[in-house]
Amino acid sequence: MEHPQRNNDIAPLKGVRVLELGNYIAAPTAGRMLADFGAEVIKIERPRTGDELRNWRLYAGNTSMLYRTVNRNKKSMVLDLRTEEGRDIVLELAAKSDIVLENFRPGTLEKWGIGPEQLNIANPDLILTRISAFGQTGPLSARPGFAAVAEAFGGFRELVGDPDRPPVRVGVSIGDSIAGIYAAFGAVMALFEREVKRGGPPIPLDHRTIDVALNEAMLSVMESLVPDYTAYGIKRERTGGRMEGIAPSNAYLCKGGGSIVVAGNGDGIYKRYMEAIGRPDLGDDPGLQSNAARWQRREELDAAIGEWSAKLTVAEALAVLDDAGVPAGPIYTAEDIVKDDQYASRNMIQRFSVSTGEETLDDVAFPGITPVIGGASLPIRNLGPDLGENTAEILRDLLDRSPGDVDRILEDMGLTPALEKEIR
């Protein structure tokens, strides 16, 4: 499933090898980011079932589009980490890698005999990036927890939804994704330090260990939530489509059922905004010239804007606001995104033929690579691989195993040699 216009000209992480021991979304997101920019990422999956993400939002076959997306540009190798041979192979791979990614419960790698000390013996330069619910230390470190728990623990969930209803979650695993982004940043930061200090004293293992906690990743994006409380006793509340202390900024219904988002809260923008909706009286009102004052009268402002938007279609409303220089945009669905000229112009929608495990679907759109280098998204080299697709290649070419040894391991892992050739 390689992209027909494969381009390896821009690959800042080319030559970096990453061993991914992660399931679900957090560590695989970090691995995806590193792979997107040229790193060779070897994803280790359990025999026969693989990463559980293969079955999340599975609408057909045996491999979901979610798995294909999060694990793009990687290689898949099947190993049983419950066996001595599987653990030995992991240590062999670690010896030839730059970064290990993992998101097991703290203590799991240690229990399996492939913890930090063993990995460090195998490779004293190795960077170990660990993602867990609450971090590797502290009274909650041994607790299991998915992103939903971390989002609540980090203060995020309390602010999502309407004030008169219980908190809700957003429609994606945002805690996992943010933690994965931090993990990728941490890994590259440690890689940079290692290269800068090469030739000097060895970097201690604890300096090469990146510890990302899901709840701390969420806390880090909560802006001034904690300082505002400790300084002024302010307790933020859910505000629906608004942002606390900022007005007018909200979503508004238009004629025909569509909606727009308008961020007209800047002092200079506000007056133009009110003129554009035919309410210059609100724009000139002395009691509405500061953001704090507008926040106090947010219901009045939203009612006036909603009355205006309800008379226009999305396109008509956006044309008026664009002419007035007011930041606004449509609320897109997936259907809108795949048709959008802006995304297309930056190669942010890339299309592939994709196997579900039962059939091949043509012209399936996937999101491009962020951030952009060179003016447009880099091309995706391959989608998330089939289970064990690269096992033989890695055993043979990287670990120098004999053909007989390769065949035996493949059969032990439920991948017959014939199947492996077929996959490849």
Automatic annotation (TrEMBL):
User: In which domain of life is the source organism classified?
Assistant: Bacteria
Task: Give the top-level enzyme category.
Answer: transferase
Q: Which GO terms describe its molecular function?
A: formyl-CoA transferase activity
Q: Which UniProt keywords apply?
A: Transferase
Q: Does the keyword Magnesium apply?
A: no
List its EC numbers. 2.8.3.16
Any Pfam family the entry gives: CoA_transf_3
Keyword Transferase included in the entry's annotation: yes
The protein's name in its UniProt record: Formyl-CoA transferase
Q: Which organism is it from?
A: Arthrobacter pigmenti
